Amino acid sequence: MIALPIVGVSAVDLTWRSSELSVEQTLSRQIGAADAKLTDTSYDAGLYQNPTGDRYEPVGGYRDYDPSKAKPEDVPVTAVLPQGAQVVQDSHGSAKVRTTHGLLVTELREVDTASPLVEGLFTLKRGRLPSAAGEVMATDTFLKESGFFVGSELTPRGAARSYRIVGAYELPSALDRTQVIAPPGTLLGPLDRALTGAGGQGLSVDDSFLVKVGGDGFTWNMVRAANAKGMLAVSRTVKLHPPADSEVPLYAQQRAENSGDDYNGASTKAVELAVLATVVGLALLEVCLLAGPAFAVGARRSARQLGLVGANGGDRRHIRAIVLSGGLVLGAASAVVGTALGVALTLGLRPVLEEYLGLRWGGFEVRPLELLAVALVAVLTGLLAAVVPAVTASRQTVLASLTGRRGVRRANRILPLIGLVAVAAGAALALYGAVSDMGTVVVAGGSALAELGVVALTPTLVGLFGRAGRWLPLSPRLALRDAVRNRGRTAPAVAAVLAAVAGTVAVATYQHSTELQARHEYVASLPAGAGMLTNTEDDRYKDVPAARQALAKEFSLAVRADVDRVVVGKPSCGSYSTEPGCGRLEIVTPPENRCPLYESKNGMSDFTMDQVRALRRDWRCKERQFMQPRDTVVADEKLLAVLGVNDPGAVAALRSGQAVSFDRRNSQAGKITLRVITDDARGSGTPGPGGEPKGVDKVFPAYQAPDTVTGYGIEVVLPPGAVKAAGMGTAPFGTYFTLADKPTSAQRQALTGAIDRIGVDALVKIEEGYQGRDSLEILALTIFAGLVTIGAAGIATGLAQADAEADLKTLAAVGAPPRVRRTLSGFQCGVVALMGVALGTAAGLLPAAGLRLTERRALAGLIAHSGSDQAVYAPFAVPWATLGGLLILVPLGAAVLAALVTKSSGALARRATG
Questions:
Q1: Can you tell me the distance from the alpha carbon of 835 to that of 641, in angstroms, rounded to the nearest whole number?
Q2: What secondary structure does DSSP assign to 677-716, as a single string?
Q3: Residue 264 DSSP symbol
Q4: Among 452, 493, 751, 869, which residue is least crowded by beta carbons within 10 Å?
Q5: Radius of gyration of the chain (CA)
Q6: Which residues have CB under 8 Å from 400's CB, separation 6+?
């Protein structure tokens, strides 16, 4: 019981320390054997970075940075390197690769694997390194997910040729990455040319450079010189020997702009340590509460030996020392066994743990002081668990110990008062944290204090339960009265159950409450039972018709509405592509229909809070609740049927060649305006009058749907004829549909497989209402609470049987049926379990209520700050189904299990007298 937590804690410590990499190990996996890695950025005026290279900003900060003014051309890496430097280019891209199962998004990489500079970046597991065009090596994860093996051939989608896998490797710090490496110039370039040649969108490739300069390595001055050219540098020398903060311009710039970390690291660490200490303390208390009755069983069975010690001149100090020594010895033995098992378990499961964490350890690191601290916790736990049994045993008279009789002990009057004060103080602290700025840490601390108070009150509460015995039959009445009369063994077991159940109830109540809030806030994307198939890859528009046919084949459709998108530039261009020859389409909102909150120069700062609240109620400032992949689509009146639009005017408008608008902010005088923006290759648009992007405006006659009609995020529906008349092109985008019959799982899988075979990344979504989150956590916590309950109640039952053995023999002697022993044992276990579960349920509601009140206050503040008059909805709801399972099934299961494992009869013996 004590060794098991030690096994877990020592294993966690060993895993944590072993997975921490040294700076040298991290550098080896990041930059190989190179002195530095350089990566080009788009900052034309240079950048400032920190010594580790994981944070950087443009010179002057982001406040005045204009992203449209990017570098006119890339700076060659040789411009920032000394003469004779070695350079290896490392290029990365991403594409879909055809596998045995369909398509798999894979990182494609080109690097010279024979260069000594790449040593440490990857580990070859089997096969050999690729050396010629048409050869690649793949990560083990890619091979596992693709179904390939060394010797297979893979083909990126759109590639003109296949590539043979000649080796398998792994990335030591990214074991779960799907990646393929090819020799330079053999994969990314040919694939890009093949894609663009077929009218598709090319690859986006990121280049970095591994450099070796020799001498003192890539110094901080060299890093700053590279930054001046817009390059980010990760340097081995700088990481191993970082410069002073005064020599880092990034820190000075952040101090000047007050843009550094917005939190205090020391205070955050203090809070984390406080939370960790609270968790460890409660876990220690749980172990003590579980182990305490076990020590009491041992002390009770050793009562005669302890009585003999007293009869031979030993006093109370000796009795206490004997029992405490037993706890000390057991704690020490548990420490040794638990630590040894933890080390062995971690070593044996090292490959599994590395796969789970996603990185290879730098070594197996054992920190003796930390393991010694863990072992001392075990010794301390054993000692604390033996304190109460030791005091109880020392108070027994010699005569009572030798005859097996128990003396009468008065109830402690101080402990209930302490418990009441702790409960009141903890509840007040938790509620104060919920309504103040102290936050969840104070709520957690107050809840823990209140729980400790309930633990202190447990003996008194157990006594109150005893008053229900007068209405119970014989066996449960005997069990309840036995538990009440022997609170020394009942209270710790009840408290242990209380602590475990309280945590389960708190998590279950909090999750159930947030589930109700999420259900209330859920916004449907389509009418119930409707669905959509949408293409997420605009350059694969030619495959959309095949996906539509697969949808119609596999699903039983009532209405099918094929939807196209308006093309700006080439059909393969994305909606916001920055490639040359591409552009975008925007809905132009008339100036008088625009929300003043968003049009004002300083936003809401230009208005009083009353004005903000008034404008929030203005129809021009109404928030959009729905989201769709596109706000402007090309379709016929079938789309209106799918969207549940029954307005005859909208249907007639589409049939007559007019557009339909679902947002009245977009229409004016029966017309809407769409702006075609093609003059800015970067997609941000060259500002025109009023700061708006310039473009060609297309005006369409439009029917404005009533406000009671919703388009579910679609703002404008254009008829195909009107788009063609405006000189604009279209491309297939997807299909909206309603179902005649709900598709089965087999039909869904068949459609997914068909779309995979087509090779298009099309998403299929059916509106089925709010789908609750997975409750595996609650199930796991409930099982844990049940196991703790059965364990603690079983220990208390074993002690009760040891105490009541003489009474049970007497019952058997006077003719009681054999089932009385079994029934009494079951009820004794069930009584302890029921009391613990009931008290734990009450104790667990407090932290959940405190956390929900904290969230409600934060939500109310956020809504008030935004100027909205929206009602705050953050409910506190009790999960009655979970509580019912805990209150009924867990005690019932404990009682049945105890009855099953108890013998129906015992050996008869003469009742001790005198």
A1: 59
A2: E-S-TTSS--B-GGGPBP-EEEEEEEEE--TT---TT--E
A3: -
A4: 869
A5: 36
A6: 307, 406, 407
Contacts of 256 (CB under 8 A, 6+ apart): none
Nearest to 834 by CA among 898, 773, 774: 898
pLDDT tens digits, residue range 392-438? 777 777 776 676 665 555 556 787 888 888 888 888 887 777 677 66
Residue 521, C-beta contacts closer than 8 angstroms, at least 6 positions apart: 873
DSSP bridge pairs for 91: 110, 207
For the four alpha carbons of 712, 713, 715 and 720, in that order, the dihedral sign comes to: negative
Neighbour count for residue 800 (Cβ, 10 Å) = 25
Which pLDDT value is given to residue 894?
Answer: 79
Which ranges of 386-439 would DSSP assign to H, the alpha helix?
A: 387-394, 398-403, 414-435
CA 830/CA 478 separation, integer angstroms: 12
Per-residue pLDDT of 501-549, as tens digits, reads: 887 788 788 888 888 888 888 888 899 989 999 998 888 888 999 999 9
What is the token pair recorded at 310?
Answer: 């007293």
- Bridge partners of 198? none
Cβ proximity of 531 and 739 under 8 Å:
yes
Least confident range of 75-79, 444-448, 456-460: 444-448
Most distant CA pair in the chain: distance in Å?
Answer: 113
Q: What are the structure tokens assigned to 877, written together?
A: 């709801």
805 within 8 A of 906, measured Cβ to Cβ: yes
Instruction: Mention every residue, 6+ apart, whose C-beta is less than 8 A from residue 485.
Output: none
State both tokens at 271: 């809070």
Whole-model pTM: value is 0.70
Report helix, strand or coil for 502.
Answer: helix
Residue 134 has a pLDDT of 94
Give DSSP secondary structure letters for 287-307: HHHHHHHHHHHHHHHTHHHHH
